[in-house]
């Protein structure tokens, strides 16, 4: 009888140790996964930010190229600039407008300068 009590008691302690170890291991896994998740989220945000910057640079570059074309057409001919060039230029400008936050002072200044350049290019004025 005494032997049975010792065996049952040891088995209970063994089960308790296994249960405590499992809980402890679960907590460790939770902490590690949380840290990895935060790191992955930061990497994802950084990648999206880089993608946005690349797209913004491409949009501004396209706008600048189209401004040059419109300026050359406006300064070389006295006739009206063909619709397809103006349409493309406005599309590029609208793309940039959609990419920036309109309540930001820097964005507002950028859009104002783009509008000024557009008006000057349509007139063939390079200043």
Q: Can you offer a commentary on this structure?
A:
This protein has 127 residues and is mostly helical. The protein has one domain (2-123): Methane Monooxygenase Hydroxylase, Chain G, domain 1, CATH 1.20.58. It is 87% helix and 0% strand. The protein is built from three helices and no strands. The protein has helices spanning 2-76, 83-99, 105-123. Helix 1 (2-76) packs antiparallel against helix 2 (83-99) and helix 1 (2-76) packs parallel to helix 3 (105-123). The protein is rod-shaped and about 105 Å long. It starts with a helix and ends with a helix. 8% of the residues are buried.
The main β sheet shows up as:
none
Order of helices and strands: HHH
CATH architecture: Up-down Bundle
Distance between termini? 105 Å
Q: How would the global form be characterised?
A: rod-shaped
Please compute the radius of gyration using only Cα atoms: 33 Å
Helix content: over 70%
Class per helix and strand makeup: mainly alpha
The total of beta strands comes to 0
Count of separate DSSP helical elements: 3
